Amino acid sequence: METPARADTLQSLERGLAVLQVFSTENPRLTLSEVARLAGITRATARRILLTLEHLGHVRADGRLFSLTPRVLSLGFAYLSSLNLWDIAQPLMEELVEQTHESCSAATLDLPDIVYVARVPTRRIMAISLGLGSRLPAHATSMGRVLLADLPDEELDAYLATGPFPAFTERTTVDPDDLRAVVTQVRGQGWSMVDQELETGLRSISAPIRGSDGRTVAALNIAAAAPRVGLDDLRDHFLPLMLVTAEQISLAFTRSGKR
């Protein structure tokens, strides 16, 4: 028998969301068979879901190929609007960018990734183009490690059990035990610094943004090019400024009652 919690879920909605999630940068246009395979559902089910999504305006069909439409963004912006992080954080993040002349971002956790919810760029320093909704692997990012540090032990254990993790450079921490040690250090010091683990030539430093209940609701970071900003500069000059900004955003969250 299904557990009560499982019995209360709507399988058709689960499958519909699974279909939306199979589209990506690597798979922007898919056939019916490809959607069914990637979502782990039958062709008949995939067809009904795609036709429903097309009727709602979230998917378009071009011959045999299906692709998402801009209307899908409304789902993500509904989350951003409910979080209200951007309205609260934007002026403070812009001030931090003025002080450091480096890009500043905020992200939340959606394992195994982080998801960007706010960003104030300065110059292009990454090969990856980032915007709201962009996803990066939690294990190789400073924001990811700040967010992992706030997880309950059992949730962190479950995540680490999925390792070893992908290596993006020769510096990437891929061993679960090594990553656990890094996250433990972040828990103790309250911030994280990553040196060229996601991309060669990229360094970043992050701190938690906390809600009114004291839990981490997002992570704030500064990213800089390694040839231009040394580790000592990142820690001694940028970190204090970022910690102040993170505290200011957290205080604004507390005053607004955000959790």
Automatic annotation (TrEMBL):
<dbReference type="InterPro" id="IPR029016">
    <property type="entry name" value="GAF-like_dom_sf"/>
</dbReference>
<dbReference type="GO" id="GO:0003677">
    <property type="term" value="F:DNA binding"/>
</dbReference>
<dbReference type="Pfam" id="PF09339">
    <property type="entry name" value="HTH_IclR"/>
</dbReference>
<dbReference type="Pfam" id="PF01614">
    <property type="entry name" value="IclR_C"/>
</dbReference>
<dbReference type="InterPro" id="IPR012794">
    <property type="entry name" value="PcaR_PcaU"/>
</dbReference>
<dbReference type="GO" id="GO:0006071">
    <property type="term" value="P:glycerol metabolic process"/>
</dbReference>
<dbReference type="InterPro" id="IPR050707">
    <property type="entry name" value="HTH_MetabolicPath_Reg"/>
</dbReference>
<feature type="domain" description="IclR-ED">
    <location>
        <begin position="71"/>
        <end position="255"/>
    </location>
</feature>
<keyword id="KW-0238">DNA-binding</keyword>
<dbReference type="InterPro" id="IPR014757">
    <property type="entry name" value="Tscrpt_reg_IclR_C"/>
</dbReference>
<dbReference type="InterPro" id="IPR036390">
    <property type="entry name" value="WH_DNA-bd_sf"/>
</dbReference>
<dbReference type="GO" id="GO:0045893">
    <property type="term" value="P:positive regulation of DNA-templated transcription"/>
</dbReference>
<dbReference type="GO" id="GO:0045892">
    <property type="term" value="P:negative regulation of DNA-templated transcription"/>
</dbReference>
<dbReference type="GO" id="GO:0003700">
    <property type="term" value="F:DNA-binding transcription factor activity"/>
</dbReference>
<comment type="function">
    <text>May be an activator protein for the gylABX operon.</text>
</comment>
<feature type="domain" description="HTH iclR-type">
    <location>
        <begin position="10"/>
        <end position="70"/>
    </location>
</feature>
<keyword id="KW-0319">Glycerol metabolism</keyword>
<keyword id="KW-0804">Transcription</keyword>
<dbReference type="InterPro" id="IPR036388">
    <property type="entry name" value="WH-like_DNA-bd_sf"/>
</dbReference>
<protein>
    <recommendedName>
        <fullName>Glycerol operon regulatory protein</fullName>
    </recommendedName>
</protein>
<dbReference type="InterPro" id="IPR005471">
    <property type="entry name" value="Tscrpt_reg_IclR_N"/>
</dbReference>
<keyword id="KW-0805">Transcription regulation</keyword>
<dbReference type="GO" id="GO:0046278">
    <property type="term" value="P:3,4-dihydroxybenzoate metabolic process"/>
</dbReference>
